[in-house]
Design brief:
Layout (H helix, E strand, L loop, with lengths): L19 E3 L2 E3 L6 E5 L7 H13 L4 E5 L3 H13 L4 E4 L4 H10 L3 E4 L7 H13 L3 E7 L5 H7 L4 H17 L5 E6 L3 H14 L5 E2 L7 H17 L5 E3 L6 H14 L7 E5 L10 H11 L7 E6 L5 H5 L4 E5 L4 E6 L2 E7 H26 L1
Parallel strand pairs: 3-4, 3-10, 4-5, 5-6, 6-7, 7-8, 9-10, 11-12, 12-13
Antiparallel strand pairs: 1-2, 13-14, 14-15
Helix pairs in contact: 2-3, 3-4, 5-6, 6-7, 7-8, 8-9
């Protein structure tokens, strides 16, 4: 739950779900909503794939998924899993042997649709491998790859077809006494995805993996994901998320965190509140924010920073941020600390001084947390 006793209109009550583990990361229950991404390298290229995993983890990815389409990929997976700082999910489609090999290689989770990998004996083999090696699973229903009998029944991908597919796959796992699974019902259409996820949330207590699949490039995909995922998260639905962009996986992680931060569901790093700027600005807001975003990427401690060009909204925004700067006249502005006026600062010194203040505040918070342990 996102609980704010002083501003109850900001509260989000999360849907109750049971908790599973993806490696060391809890998913569901009262665990924080985790952020995932997926590599887009050739998995058998260990150097390239692991490099992408490490970069994603550095910006906050809790879990990273890799595709394992062939034996070369599952052979490489062993080293990738061993060296990765975060749990690795192996993406399996139809080859049940790849699922078994991935579990043996150290994958923390298998992304699979149990109904797609063959007869019941093969399903049992995969489940045994998952149990033997401590793997969880994700049932991954996708509007673009629904089973033929469901398309024949419903005529097209629709919420009812996606829900039925998901529940059919759940039944296969439960009939085989396997319960460590989460589930997704993804679509590129935000209306279809939202309707399918809403129905799914009512039909099962399994943890839900949210995603708007094939959302597009960095700009369009970010907007579509924010609309689709934000709507569901606001309704309390979702235990882990993946933003799907035709872009660097690092960008997926950043966008995922920004969506969660905007709803108060997860915080990491500096949240910059800034104005779009206008003729009243006392300094170049756009260039300043761009520079600060780059120079503060290394800060992982959650805190808020307001950068407002003039005194119309600046003091009010500064009241609600850890550090604030409001443009004034004569080439200087006012610094606010914890909502209170602190000192004036020249525009020339502004960026360097704000970076120093943020770093000092981050170090102070870390020291206080360590002392409290």
């Amino acid at each position: 739950m996102s609980l704010n006793p002083h501003r109850p209109w900001r509260n989000i009550t999360r849907r109750p779900s049971r908790q599973i583990w993806v490696g060391k990361v809890p998913v569901g229950g009262d665990a924080p909503i985790s952020v995932q991404t997926m590599t887009n390298t050739i998995t058998s290229d260990v150097t390239a794939t692991l490099g992408q995993v490490l970069r994603a983890a550095d910006v906050g990815a809790d879990i990273v998924r890799v595709s394992v389409p062939d034996e070369d990929a599952t052979r490489a997976l062993k080293e990738i899993c061993r060296e990765s700082p975060v749990p690795i999910v192996a993406d399996i489609h139809f080859h049940y042997k790849r699922a078994i090999e991935a579990a043996e290689a150290g994958a923390a989770c298998l992304r699979i649709n149990p109904g797609n990998i063959g007869d019941e004996s093969r399903v049992r083999e995969v489940i045994k491998a998952a149990k033997d090696h401590g793997c969880s699973m994700r049932i991954g229903v996708n509007a673009g790859s629904l089973e033929k009998h469901l398309l024949d029944k419903y005529g097209e991908p629709c919420p009812e077809a996606m829900l039925e597919s998901g529940l059919d796959h759940i039944k296969i796992l439960q009939d085989n006494d396997f319960h460590e699974f989460k589930i997704s019902v993804k679509a590129s259409d935000v209306f279809l995805a939202a309707a399918a996820y809403t129905a799914l949330a009512e039909a099962t207590d399994a943890p839900i993996h949210l995603g708007i699949t094939e959302a597009g490039g960095l700009m369009a995909g970010t907007v579509k994901s924010a609309v689709g995922l934000g709507n569901l998260l606001w309704a309390g639905i979702g235990d882990t998320i993946r933003v799907s962009l035709s872009a660097d996986p690092v960008e997926e992680v950043k966008v995922g965190y920004e969506i969660l931060k905007s709803l108060g569901l997860r915080t990491r790093g500096v949240q910059i509140i800034s104005c779009p700027s206008c003729a009243r600005q006392g300094f170049d807001v756009i260039k300043t924010v761009d520079a600060l975003e780059k120079r503060l990427e290394h800060i992982k401690t959650p805190m808020s920073l307001s950068i407002i060009g003039c005194v119309v909204n600046g003091p009010g925004e500064a009241l609600m941020t850890d550090i604030g700067f409001t443009g004034g006249g004569a080439g200087s502005g006012m610094v606010y600390l914890a909502g209170k006026q602190s000192h004036r600062l020249s525009n020339e010194q502004m960026i360097d001084e704000i970076v120093r203040m943020v770093e000092d505040r981050a170090a102070q918070i870390a020291a206080e947390e360590q002392a409290a342990e």
